User: What shape does this take?
Amino acid sequence: MAREPASLDLVRVLREHGVQPSAQRLAIAECVLAAVDHPAADTVLARVQERLPLVSRATVYNTLHRFVEAGLLRELSIAEGRTVYDPKLDPHHHFVDLDSGAIHDLPWDALEVRGVEQLSAERLSAYDVRDYQVVLRGRRHARRRAP
Ligand SMILES: [Zn+2]
Assistant: This one.
């Protein structure tokens, strides 16, 4: 599941983040920066290999790591033992479907989280909160009627 991005824009986006846009990096960027399904590294690898059959696992993994460092992607460990990549950098929460393993985005204002600022501002607090999100796990309701 990926939207078709404009390659020229990706060249610019990579350069703006200090990443040299090689052909392999562009192919990887096209597969992951437009993804809406929080793909794992192996999923990205399989998608990239559809276009570049000879691309190595190490290249894809290293590039994903580079994209995270460059601030193009977020790395999430929200499903048990599985790291996934999220190109959506705006704050949002996640819902993990326990049946399918699918990870869905929830709008930031769909939930209300209180106390984070106090926790961080408390002078004696051991916590310096930089980032937080809520991960909900559950099952989607069965549809009452067939679509
Ligand atoms: Zn997300």
Observations:
- Residues 2 and 36 are 7 Å apart (CA to CA).
- Residues 1-5 have pLDDT under 50 and may be disordered.
- The pocket of zinc ion is lined by residues 38, 86, 88, 92, 94, 105 (CB under 6 Å).
